Amino acid sequence: QDNGFEQFIINYCNEKLQQIFILMTLKEEQEEYVREGIQWTPVEFFDNSIICNLIENSKCGILAMLDEECLRPGTVNEDTFLTKLNQLFATHKHYESKETQNARRVMDTSLPPQCFRIHHYAGKVTYNVTGFIEKNNDLLFRDLSQAMWAAQHTLLRSLFPEGDPQKASLKLPPTAGFQFKASVATLMKNLYSKNPNYIRCIKPNDTKTAMLFTPELVLAQIRYLGLMENVRVRRAGYAFRQLYGPFLERYKMLSARTWPRWVGSDREGAEVLLADLAIPPEELAFGHTKIFIRSPRTV
Length: 299
Hints:
Blueprint: H1 5-35, H2 49-56, H3 62-71, H4 78-88, E1 95-97, H5 98-103, E2 115-120, E3 123-128, H6 132-136, H7 142-150, H8 154-159, H9 176-192, H10 215-224, H11 227-236, E4 240-243, H12 244-251, H13 266-276, E5 284-286, E6 290-293
Antiparallel strand pairs: 1-2, 2-3, 4-6, 5-6
Helix pairs in contact: 1-2, 1-9, 3-4, 12-13
Family: Belongs to the TRAFAC class myosin-kinesin ATPase superfamily. Myosin family.
Pfam family, one: Myosin_head
InterPro entries: Kinesin_motor_dom_sf, Myosin_head_motor_dom-like, P-loop_NTPase
């Protein structure tokens, strides 16, 4: 019910994971059909990069503004931080606070004064700014890190590399938000280099009761997870795709014309092989470099 800095950081990570899910399953899949010259009607979907940018933009994102407030000399409090956000995002459609609501003449008693609200992909979340600055400042003092390093213990040294006197820096230690943003960027880079599979968990009811499904709750989750668009792309698209070479190598024994050796191009070989198998033409699409097969049962 009460969301602070920790929940804000967690939701930022969720937003980034949703972004990679959208890019890999909706955007890239559709782009592949276009690239391969397959006839395709684009499926519209909500791209949440606008929300990610609101949080992580290095010049004027929420995390950057928080860092700026933490480094500012003089009396620093959350009020100045919230005022800065209100000025920056006065017209942003995924951000609102009491002040921006007043400017838009919106009367909403559910949004208290010390708070801002973000319209995340999964719904609206209200954050209380109290404690944001204190929690964002990494207050592990330099001499404590150096003491840990001096303990001559391998694990401790790996946990406190900044304690190495040879790497001693006079710069301020990085903030918690900065460290988390860097950590999320590393995770994203790692995920982009893989071929991930997804398991989507749907919460069936709010009471943790067996065999009870609340249709409104399930539907809301299916909508905000982008699963509707995913099903549309999958239904309109092709369950299986493979480069002509490996496809022919794997299935060439199914036709007397391609087995044991095929002398033409890989694509021609795949066309001959599939013609001999009498597969309905609507099940197949021949791309520039790959064969596309519509339904799993055909494979």
